[in-house]
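Hello Y.,

Per our agreement to keep a running log of every chain we model this quarter, I'm adding this entry. I've kept the format consistent with earlier entries: sequence first, then predicted structure.
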Amino acid sequence: MNDENDGFFYHPLDTIEDAEVFETAIDRKVFSRRLSHERPYTYWTLELYDQENGIRGGGGLGVLAADTRRVAEQVKVPFVLITPFYPYEAHQKWQDGQIVDEHIPVNYDSFGFSKVGDVTVKCCNNICNLEVIEKSFDYTKIVAITEPNFGELYSGLSGSDHRLYQEVCLGFGGYQALKLLGLKPAIMQLNEVATFFAALVRLDELASNGMDFYEAVVYTRKHTLYTNHTLVQAAEAEFSLEQFENFVFPNLKSKPVKKWLHDKFVDGRIKLSSVTIEIAELRSGVSKLHARVANYHDIAGERVKFKAITNGIDMKKWVLPDIMKFYHEEGILDEFDMPTPNFSDNLKALSSDLILSFKEVGRGILNKELSHRPDQNGEILNFEEGEVIFDFKRRFVDYKRPQLPFKDPARLRSILEPINAHYILAGRVHTGDSRMAKILAEILNTVNSDDYLRTHVHYIADYDEKLAFALSVGSNVAINVPIVGLEACGTSWEKDVANLNLLISTHDGGVADGSMESYLNVHGMGEDEEVLELYTRMEEAAAAWENKFDLDMMIKKQLAEFLPTISGARMLYDYLDYLLPE
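Predicted structure for the entry above:
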């Protein structure tokens, strides 16, 4: 079904009725379009968050990249993910009342990567040598470029020379790496504008090898997808012409390509989104709401249309195995972890007693993970069966508003104390974000001024995917309150819903794919009203975990509404359907 309305496009997967049909559809798209191990689907990302394979990212963008690769492996789609391997990881700890950053060196040899060769890029009149490393699976690969001085993920300001150097290395070096491995991209998915240079080097190769420039542009555009994860073009960093003359133009061979790129500068400055929009005919947003409201314009000033392909998750990775077994045995999910045609009817097999038993298993996983992660007071936590845990687990950035529940400490205490509930804060403060570091310190000062909150509100530093999983399976209530209109998608809430947590959220990002009635919605005219609404919803959630009938009803309502959205296989099929139409 296609829905077109005011520039908003959404193509939900409503024709895949069972596993056999899905597999046939994947096979048809893969093989009839010559998608193969030699001509794979290529996915370019400056960030990968895949601790199992030795690469630690910074947030949801990297987690999504890892999930997409794993889902491609599960459904047997030839897929290559190209990313930098950063020789340092950033970690954080809470020390003397403040966030302290730590920088730990890592070696790719420790994680099963092997070196396959070297490539070079030209920067500032120098030749920069890059190692090419890879890790292969049955149907997918991770290909990475690295060098000792590459630095950390997102090191330097977004418009800095070093950031541009990293992006140029990924694009020009990564494309050479594919050629070194004998691979030719059938599809190029650009995960945010930092990966623009991968498409640029493909355009340059076609044009410099004899293809008419305009034909090269058309070919590149038709085989390139730009996936946008942010909402406002104006917030994007810019680069100068001088920076491009030092880092980009020396790597280009085609004079028409150089002129084309040079002409995109306005007053000696360029936004990568402007040229990414020009080089990619296919453009996607990561939720229905995001595709509708993202405010991006092309060089001519025309607003750009995005197709909505809502982010999904790798459910095998993020959902408690006991719950996944239940979903499969009861015919709620098929073998590709997609909802069956009658999944909502089959949810009747879920009971409040089962929910509580799954939470008991998850609580054990959470306690084990917390056994080596002290809270802000140096306490090692061990939660009892039946204790209700609220959590906020996502990046500490302004628009996500981690401080909202602490506006009225007395009211927060009145919610937690009657049932002896706890509240866990977990999330990374970006290095250099002094505002959010200050807000976190203020939250914890507020907590420490109250005898009850001091022992029932816990900040766990160095948030990572292991802690994210443990909280998803071991907590009871998830708090997700971004300022409406600023969250592109988010996937933490998807993990919470799939793991049978109650979701308290504003109607933003991917949550807005569903109805407000399907979860505990926070709304209001202004922040003061939203805070009052949040407290009311927290009271309702606390009561539900004390009332089996309400718990059963509310969890089933969430699952019935959101399981189709959550499926990573659905997401990947939607991408294939968009990139390789019949």
